[in-house]
Amino acid sequence: MGTKKAIVLSGDNHYTAQITTTIKSIVYHLRRVKIYLINSDIPQEYFFNLNLRLKQLDSELVDLKINPELFSNAESPKAHISKITYGRLMIPQLVTEDRALYIDSDAIVDQSISELWTMDLGDYPIAAVHDVFLADIFNAGIILFNNKKLREDPDLVDNMLAAAQQKGILDADQTVLNQFFNHQYLELGLEYNYVIGYDRDVSLAPRNAPGYFEKMLNCPQPKIIHYASPDKPWNLQSAGRMREKWWQYHNLDWVTITQHGQLPQLTKPVKGKFFTLTASDSMIHLAKLAQALPDYEFHVAAFSLVSPTLLNYMRFHNVHVYASISKPRVEELMHDCTAYLDINRETKYQDWIERFAKNGRPVYSFASDAAALSDQVHQEIFADDDYQKMVQRIQKNG
Fold first, then answer.
1. Any idea which GO molecular function terms this record carries (predicted)?
2. I need a surface site. Which of 71, 101, 235, 372 has the fewest CB within 10 A?
3. Are 281 and 307 in contact (CB under 8 A)?
4. pLDDT in tens, 171-220
């Protein structure tokens, strides 16, 4: 049957929920895998429990404990990155297989990637994906290590660890790996490291990443989705795309994984979805509408951070609030929604509302603060003190 496919993860004990989600996504799409977990503080019980489940999938999880003192003098990574990330520099030394795929633990596998173990690496020491932002580096979040080639240099790991002690390293081990392999790696397609999380930053400063959205939108179906920025899907809120995809794998039960059943749905079927783009936390009758229309979803978004007042509406199961939202995410939500609720006070995003309504979808407003829209928009305005009429109209229109 051949050897198992070697995959390497790294992380700390506080990151086990994310690590488990990554593992679930891997074994949902692959069988016969040997997953090495580089760590310094994850309890034995964690490995014991997961190995009971992975054994049924002809797979296993290996506890690769390393001494954190090895990286004590290394440059501290960014706030959302742990120093354990330097552990991947030791993969040629720690992992016995001739080929090993490193995957960051803030990534998920969304399709079979078995071809990575059969593709011709030639004389390349690694394979990686070109960084979507910087023209002259690869992103180190997903790397295919050609260990057989790398072991030809017996001093390589020691030299990389020494390089990690340099001052001024901007991106931790990614900087080190690029110092050693920047001009000698096999370039993989973007689908193998589909970086999510920077949409809003690029929306605000597109000159910093020319062609970013074109590259992302033209990418084939992503095979590995990498939530690389601090805008993580497990935060209370995240502005980027594909948040739901991460939670689908997080919520997967092991029976479904074993049977390769359908990924879990995160919401129940609804009769309609409403969208509101706001710069204010003052909403007219949102709580009453959410309670009166439990079979409908309310999506409220802001380009800025939002106040606790607006976040408090998330106590209703059918209200979703999006802070610091990116423009592509706004486009996605607008595409999915059936009506626009013009129920926020103060600033109105009239251009966005007009775009939403151009194909005949209705806009529902309250009289005291209705947006002034063109005659081409199907806008219905209701008295502030009669939200029930809006509810009735929505129910009638379906």
1. glycosyltransferase activity; metal ion binding
2. 372
3. yes
4. 777 888 998 998 899 999 999 999 987 877 777 776 767 777 788 888 87
CB-based burial label for 184 (10 Å; 0-12, 13-18, 19+): exposed
- Report how far apart, in Å, the C-alpha atoms of 193 and of each of 121, 231, 313, 345 are: 18, 17, 35, 41
Query: Which residue has tokens 């936390």?
Result: 281
Per-residue pLDDT tens over the stretch 248-278: 999 999 999 999 999 998 878 899 999 999 9
Q: Quick one: which of 245, 199, 239, 206 has its CA closest to 222?
A: 245
pLDDT of residue 33: 98
Two tokens, residue 348: 């109105």
* Residues 284-294 as b or e (16 or more Cβ within 10 Å = b): bbbeebbebbe
Residue 226, helix vs strand vs coil: strand
Provide the edge-to-edge strand list for the sheet that holds 339-342: 319-322, 296-301, 272-277, 339-342, 363-366, 379-382
Query: What tokens does 343 get?
Result: 């129920």
Nearest to 8 by CA among 110, 107, 132, 155: 107
- What are the tens digits of pLDDT across the range 131-150? 887 668 899 999 999 999 99
Percent of residues, the chain, with pLDDT higher than 90: 72
With a CB cutoff of 8 Å and minimum separation 6, the contacts of 214 are none
In angstroms, the CA 92 to CA 214 distance is 36
Overall average pLDDT of the 98-122 stretch: 97
Structure tokens that stand for 208 in this block: 């910093």
- Of 34-43, 89-98, 259-268, 313-322, the one with minimum mean pLDDT is 259-268
Residues near 183 by beta carbon (within 8 Å), at least 6 away in sequence: none
**Maximum Cα interatomic distance, the chain, rounded to a whole number of Å:** 77
CA distance 347 to 138: 42
Q: What is the CA radius of gyration of the chain?
A: 24
H or E segment to which residue 277 belongs: strand 272-277
